[in-house]
Each structure stands twice: as structure tokens, then as C-alpha cells.
Design brief:
CATH architecture of the largest domain: Alpha-Beta Complex
Number of strands: 20
CATH class of the largest domain: Alpha Beta
Helix content: 10-25%
CATH topology of the largest domain: Fumarylacetoacetate hydrolase, domain 2
Structural class: alpha+beta
CATH superfamily of the largest domain: Fumarylacetoacetase-like, C-terminal domain
Radius of gyration: 20 Å
Oligomer: single chain
């Protein structure tokens, strides 16, 4: 059975705990990082953990993924998101991979700060997969390998400054501003029998209570085994590293149809980006100061529940 854990701060100390009956049971551990924690604590031991019991309002919940871990991301990995981006999911043969700066990782309920130079701030709910074991060589990963390789799941919101990411062709810069990577609140550690739920999780993101994104992980084009197979041919992964598996359709960003993109390719560079920015400026979906974004991921039967993120958007100058 899955075990839900949190990382939190109390009395100036960072600790780990198991969520049980709506409270936190403290785990007696010296683990400083996510990698150390998932490597040191077997699921069966955590399921039986005994310790001080705390209320959530007694502590400050932190990100369950620590900032020392790699933060690897996938782009355009849900069928409808590919289609709305002008990509044919039936012919795509590789992931779009990029990274976010690990120091943009913040607690799940943090304010998200919109930098002064950013006009088009977008949201992206994503299922986060946290590594249990290292991968240090190319390998063909199968579903049967997942319990040995994957520790658990969490929620990621890949906030993105579209007017930096796209006109400047800077994925890393546009997605790595401080606070642009809320993670958590929970890390749900999976038992072998729980992995069948991996492709049956509902993702829902709302802005000010209105649903903007809603999909299910069954619609991922590249599932976790395929993604790990491809990543293993590129670089090493360590225990505790975070992989954000892509976002569904419904982002604020609008991408011109392929035919329009071909025509735009004939424009001078300045005119092309003037057209793009004018189109984005007509989109009221972009986030503004005061907006509240909530993200939830849960299985249909409720047995896998990654909790809820709640982020308020604030302008950098207003802090």
C-alpha cells in the first residue's frame, strides 16, 4: 500500500513525516535530502513508523524534493497538448527534454513571483516522478522495472514565462525564475501493486476556481518506462531526482497552426515576434497578480492522492 510522506519545518529544524489519519507522524531520521530519505527508508518500515504526532497547522510544509536534486522536464507529452501545439502525436518518436533550475523548487503552497519583465506567465500542472535508484548507463526500462527505479509521485507546476521562453528561445531561463517550480505537498511512495495506477491518474488545474487543465495520465504519449529508457541514453539519474512528465492541454499559450508558422518563417525576425507577442497579449488566460492557481492529482478510487497545491501570483515589485 502506498505511503504518503511530507517534509516539513518545526522549531527551525527540517524533518520528515508520514501522513496518517490527517496528521503527521514524525520519522526519526537524519536524512537531509530526498535522495537520502528514499534510499534509507523502506516502504514497509515507513508504513509502521511510530513517532510524535503533529497537526498540519503546527508545521510549515516544505517541498518533498530538495534543491540538490536534478529537475528534468518533458514538453508536449499529452496527446491533446501535442495536437494544440501543432504536433502529430502518432508520428512523434522522441521526448522534448529540458531542465529547470533546481533552486526554483519551492513548497507547494508558495506564492509565485512574476518578474517585472514577464507579461505572459503560464501554468503547467504535471505529474512528478521521483527516482528511488540510480541509472548510470543506457538501459531498456520496462513496466516491471519501475518498482526498483521509482520511489514515488508528487505534483509539479512548471510555471513558464512565455515571452522569455519562446521569443528568446530560452526554455531554461523562461522556466527557472525563482518560485517557478512548486513541488508537493506530498510525496506518495508506491508499493509494487500501486504502479498499475501510474497510467490512471486524474490531473486538474484551476485558476480562481475555473478549470483550465483536466486530463488523465493514460493520455501521456511517452509513458514513464519509455521516458526513462530515453533519458538513460543521455545522462545519469540519482535517487531523489525529479522528472516532470509533461502538461495537458489548456495552457494560456496559444501556438499558431503549422501553416501559419510556415508563413511566419518568411517574415523578418522582428515582425515574426511582434506577431507572436500581439497574439499572446489577446489571451486573458495568462496569470495576473492576485490570481490563485490550484493543482490536484488523484486516482479515480482515491487511493493515490497527491494532495493540492495552492499558489497565489504576486508581482515582483509588489512584494
Amino acid at each position: 500500500m502506498a505511503v504518503t510522506v511530507v517534509r516539513y519545518m518545526k522549531d527551525g529544524a527540517t524533518r520528515w513525516g508520514v501522513v496518517r489519519d490527517g496528521k503527521i507522524v514524525e520519522v526519526d531520521t537524519q536524512s537531509r535530502t530526498t535522495g537520502e530519505f528514499v534510499s534509507a527508508w523502506p516502504l514497509a518500515t515507513l508504513a509502521q513508523a511510530q513517532g510524535a504526532t503533529l497537526r498540519f497547522d503546527e508545521v510549515a510544509i516544505l517541498s518533498p524534493v530538495t534543491q540538490n536534486q536534478q529537475f528534468v522536464c518533458l514538453g508536449a507529452n499529452y496527446r491533446q497538448h501535442m495536437i494544440e501545439s501543432g504536433i502529430d502525436p502518432d508520428v512523434k518518436r522522441f521526448n522534448m527534454m529540458f531542465t529547470k533550475a533546481s533552486n526554483c523548487i519551492v513548497p507547494a503552497n508558495s506564492d509565485v513571483v512574476r518578474p517585472t519583465e514577464v507579461k505572459f506567465l503560464d501554468y503547467e500542472i504535471e505529474l512528478g516522478v521521483v527516482m528511488r535508484s540510480a541509472i548510470t548507463a543506457r538501459r531498456n526500462v520496462t513496466e516491471a522495472d519501475l518498482p526498483d527505479l521509482i520511489a514515488g509521485l508528487t505534483i509539479v507546476n512548471d510555471y513558464s514565462a512565455r515571452d522569455i521562453q519562446i521569443p528568446q528561445m530560452q526554455f531554461y531561463k523562461g522556466k527557472s525564475f525563482r518560485t517557478f517550480g512548486p513541488v508537493g505537498p506530498y510525496l506518495v511512495l508506491l508499493a509494487p501493486e500501486d504502479f498499475r495506477q501510474l497510467n490512471a491518474l486524474d490531473l486538474t488545474l484551476t485558476v480562481n476556481g475555473t478549470v483550465r487543465q483536466k486530463d488523465n495520465t493514460r493520455n501521456l504519449v511517452f509513458k514513464v518506462p519509455e521516458t526513462l529508457t530515453e533519458l538513460s541514453g543521455v545522462h545519469d539519474l540519482a535517487p531523489g531526482d525529479l522528472i516532470a512528465t509533461g502538461t495537458p492541454a489548456g495552457c494560456a499559450l496559444t501556438v499558431p497552426p503549422p501553416a501559419v508558422q510556415r508563413i511566419m518563417g518568411l517574415f523578418p525576425e522582428r515582425k515574426k515576434w511582434e506577431f507572436f507577442l500581439k497574439k499572446q497579449a489577446s489571451r486573458p488566460q495568462y496569470l495576473k497578480s492576485g490570481d490563485v492557481v490550484e493543482a490536484r492529482i488523484v486516482s479515480a478510487d482515491g487511493r493515490i492522492d497527491l494532495g493540492c497545491q495552492r499558489n497565489r501570483i504576486v508581482d515582483e515589485a509588489a512584494r
